[in-house]
Structures are given as C-alpha cells and as structure tokens.
Amino acid sequence: MKILIKNIQELLQTRAEHLEMISGADMKLLPKIDDAFLLIEDETILAYGKMEDCPAEDQNINQVIDAQGCVVLPTWVDSHTHLVYAGNRTLEFVDRINGLSYEEIFNRGGGILNSAKKLQETSEEELYQQSKIRLEEIIAQGTGAVEIKSGYGLTVESELKMLRVIQRLKKNYPIAIKATFLGAHAFPSEYKDNHTGYIDLIVNEMIPAIARENLADYIDAFLETGYFSVEETERILEVGKKYGLRAKIHVNQFTAIGGIAACVKHNALSVDHLEIVTDEDIEVLKNSRTMPVALPTCSYFISIPYTPAKKMLAAGLPLALASDSNPGTTPSGNMNFVVATACIKMKLTPEEAINAATINGAYAMGVGTTHGSITKGKKASIIITKPLHSFYEIPYAFASNLIDTVILNGKIQPYKN
Question: Any idea what DSSP says for residue 38?
Fold first, then answer.
C-alpha cells in the first residue's frame, strides 16, 4: 500500500539521518521543505522531497492526497501522561479556584488518593472503556506515540489492573504506547506513618508481579517534598533496575531536594516537571543521557511556575515537552495546546517547541528510532493540517483545531475532534 501526499506547503522536521536528540541553540533549527511531497509505503516513510522530484502518480500508488496549502509534520510524541484513570476531579478544580493549594487538597484526602479510591472501585473493563475515549481523543489531536503511567492504584491488585488496561490499549490501537509503573505516586492512607512498609510492598510484591506479566517498560516515582524522598526513590529505582525497568521520574515540581542528581546517577531516561531548577541541577544534567521534560499545561492549570526552559537551553541542555494528562492537574492530552503554551508562557520559539514535542519527546519515551521526525524508514505517523499560512499558526491559533488528517503507521485514522 502506497500513499502519496503531494503539494505540501511546508514539510517539517525532515532529517536525512536519525538524530537522537537536539540540544541548546540547535533547537532553534527546524529543517523543512517547501512545496514538498511525502511517499508512504505500508507502515513507513519511503521517500520525501521537493515537488519537482515527486514520483508519477501511476507508479503503483494506491492513494494520492493533495495537501495544497497544508503543513505536514511528524505526529506529536507525548512522553508523560496518566491517561488511564477513573472518573474525574472536577470538585478539586473548584477548590483551587476558591483558593486551596495542591498540598492542601492532598492533605485532606484529595488529589492522588482521591483518584486511587475511584480507581480501586472501578472494574478493569470500565477503566478500559473510560481510557480508550481519552486515547482516541489524543490520536485525533495528532499524538502518535504516548507514554502512560500507572500510579492511581496504590495496591498490588489495582496497579496491575491499570497496567493491564495500558497493555490492552496498546494491543487495540495503532498508536505507539509505552507503560510506566508508578506505584510510588503517593503513600496510601494506611501507610501514611509507615513509609518503609509501603516501599516494601512496591519492591517485594508490585515490581516482581509486574515483571512476571511483562506489564511495564519503565519505572517512576514522585520524588518530592511530602511524597518520596531521595533515599526512598533510590531504593525503588535500584530494584526496578534489577527487573529491567529504566527510570522516568517526577522531580522538582515544587521543591529542589537533590532529586535530579539522584536520577542522573541512576541513568534515568527522563526527569519530568522541573518547574524548579537550580544551577546545580543544570550542571548535573549537562553531558548526561537524561532528558529534561517540561509539562507546561500543568503549570497553566494549577498556576505554578513554568519550567525555566530558556535558561536550560542557554546552558546547552535539550528539552522535551509532554502533556502530563491526568484528572487532577492537567485534564488534557492536547499536545497542540502544550506546544502553544510552551511558546506563549515559556517563550520557546515554534521551532524549539516542535523539536521538543517530536524528536526530544521520542527520546524521552524511548521511541526515537521509529518516531519523531520525517526520516526514511521511520514509522509513517504524520499530521496533515488544514490550510495554513505558516506552521507558526499551530501555536498562534492555540484554541483552534488545525488538524485535518492523522496517519498512524501508514493508515488514516478515523478519530475526529
């Protein structure tokens, strides 16, 4: 099956060779071809280039798409989500409007513990049905690869339930999915004064059970004041490492307590949130293999500081963007809005934001060899926009639906916003 997309106004993120990540000043550079074509064969990108080199339409091409006036780019890679959850937390939304902080809501039984209670009471089938609606929505919004965490179970049974739902979504949908075990999301009420007991449960029961069923690719923890300390997180990461689970860690959302240094020491694939970043943290991240990931729509929704992206890029660091889609602090997986928020609030250029949401996001999710750029041999997972004057309109028209067609693995997707 061959699909030819012709007359593309701007073909973005064209890379002749696979590039692992983009850092520092290079993030301002977004290679593109004007007046371009893209040829897909089965699941992969076969060729691309200027229209003057476009193959004839009668050369065994099954479908031709005329993208006159449109922008084509690789699908978004969302490397940090909590897409599988039960119910919602709309009452907490109102609580925040009325002046309660994230910590105050959590301390009175809201937040993560609220979501855990709902999830524990929800059947696996119902959890799947709720979650697939959100997955179909983000596909329609242009996401072609997504990481999904557990962490709203907080019991052996419920954490496994979440991870089984993630695996079922992976089996039933063409979007690339990676699963992350986040049992260390919060301490359940019964372990509030017995942290060691809950961590024992994680390392002695949860992780081995997950490994037996091969349910997760990565391991995570909420490394933060009032949640999991550096020492507690390191114990969990050490055991996860023994079972082949590389770290992707929530860190520096509210405070800087040396968590980034611990994550780099354990060769974490990514460190996520980073609303608070010290000079020491930046030095630690330099020359590491750990990708910093910013979650700007979380900052937008709960009115906390934004990741100091420009400072980090000026220091030569790479940066990825992700949605943090979850019921409490970011009830949206719309990566178009993530890119727009990064431009508007973090002052990233559109080029920097798109690099962060494609190539660097793919690195942070571990799918860089297949996703994140228009490169021959990579998965044919692409976005075709509606007619635009320029790709700058993607962040500029932040509340508009500018996507016309989403193709995943060479197949046009039926999901629409």
Answer: E
